[in-house]
Design brief:
The protein has about 425 residues and is mainly β. Helix content is about 0%, strand content about 45%.
Amino acid sequence: MLGLGCERPLVEISTPEITVLAPDLSNAFAGSDFQLVVSASSFRSVTRVTLNGFDMTRNPSTGNWEVSAQLGSGLNALIVEASDTDNVTTTDTLYALRLGIGRAVNPPRLPTGRGGHSVTALLNGVLLIAGGAPSSTSNATTEILELSDDTGFSISAARLNEPRVGHTASLLPDGRVLFLGGARNATVSEIQSLVEEVEILDPQTRTVTEIPFAGGPIRRAFHTASVRLVDGFTLIDLYGGLGDVAYTPQPRLGIRSDIRTFQLRNDSLIALSPSVGGRLIGPTWGHSQTSLFGAEPAPTSYLIGAGLLEATFDERIVAVVDFADPRGLVADEVALPTIPRLQHADVRVASGFIAYFGGRTDAAGTLTRTVEIFARDARRFFTVPVANLQPISRYAHRASLFFGNRILVIGGFDDAGNGVSASEIFVIEL
């Protein structure tokens, strides 16, 4: 008979646990000085903690580990490693965001206040502002802003054939702008207010032309759109929005969850079947879809910030989607913003970094002035201190990047639903 024994009890191997005590890494930092304090606990005594390979010091009075460091500009990876007496280690990668922020003086003003408009950066360095609503009823006017000087906005000779608010304006590879969807009223309450006509604006001739389309009507507002170049063809994808969710036998207004793909061919818009995909993050409207990388007008990777899902904010999802992903259209969920946002302004401030400005925080229309930046490599948002920015409370506004790191925030609605004519210029340095 063979007997087996052990002179010491079996102990479950456990790795040290690291907890950040200070500072709050969800906030972006304006300065380079950085003091990190962590606790490190284990079944056995923790004997060493390092930050990016440099030893941290154990505070004898608290038992916490501390170190002073310098943050570089942009996203900083903080690799913390803790080891116990048996040399069992655990490694945690944290992120800190350092940026320079400021507000420029004397920004230009829109000739009239408007919200739910579109802003398109043209190939010639001009911003085109189109449509929107001064209050409840949409308009068809367009304005341009020459970014090369300080002359401000000027009325454009071009005028949309169909007044619309909550539409999309997509820059095409040839420099023209495609207008899709939207509504005739800022508050969409019936199918009849949705705009079905498709229009193209030519910045060279400053003319607007209605073009034919094949397939069921678009019927959506406060949606998003993307432009793709596939095998030489120009494809446009529309996602979400308030719109017709039934079509037949009886149209019904609701929140759309579908992606619908069109091909622009010989100045006709043709609905493709099947489209690029079905649901992404569920029924949503007032959301944002911002390119993370690549030059306009045909990037493939986007951050989709969910606005209103279904009828409440009970479920919030933010995801990265890559239309060129060989797996197909997959919503890669990432960490949520600090607060929910609906009809916020969004802009790519640098490759892999997206800024969110303001918006509504609930279906009742509560506004926020907060600013957050999403960092792709960290897969999360960082709250930006707004003391130096003092942003205006608004929603259904737009943001556009120009002159390198300057961000122009334009128009929107105030808490009473009136169009805002003031714009703001923020400087964010990463």
